[in-house]
Inverse folding.
């Protein structure tokens, strides 16, 4: 068994696709129209056949309160691995990404948390 897909709930799929590709550097794998929304997935440019991240519409009634509660408590929805949190923090900050937690060394890992502009906090982490 292995992970094939994982999701992040977004408030605007077009905005999310632009942010996740143009800013974060993921690559669009699928964009299939499905009525009001689309099936959109992105993958790591470094692993094009790896795990796909679904940019899932957050239109379910439970999604809004769930996401708002996580953001209010400063809890990231998910975490992405990077080679160096400090370098990625500098790169993303230069692109205008708003961080809610600057890089913090936590023993064997360093983490930082940013706002994905689509209603989520996302953590980045690297091993020290």
């Amino acid at each position: 068994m292995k992970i094939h897909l994982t999701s992040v709930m977004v408030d605007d799929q077009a905005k999310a696709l632009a942010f996740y590709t143009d800013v974060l550097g993921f690559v669009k794998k699928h964009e299939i129209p499905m009525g009001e929304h689309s099936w959109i997935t992105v993958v790591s440019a470094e692993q094009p056949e790896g795990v796909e991240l679904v940019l899932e519409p957050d239109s379910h009634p439970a999604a809004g309160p769930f996401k708002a509660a996580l953001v209010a408590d400063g809890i990231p929805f998910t975490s992405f691995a990077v080679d160096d949190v400090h370098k990625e923090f500098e790169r993303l900050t230069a692109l205008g990404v708003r961080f809610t937690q600057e890089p913090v060394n936590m023993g064997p890992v360093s983490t930082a948390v940013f706002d994905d502009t689509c209603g989520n906090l996302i953590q980045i982490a690297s091993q020290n």
Notes: Residues 67 and 120 are 7 Å apart (CA to CA).
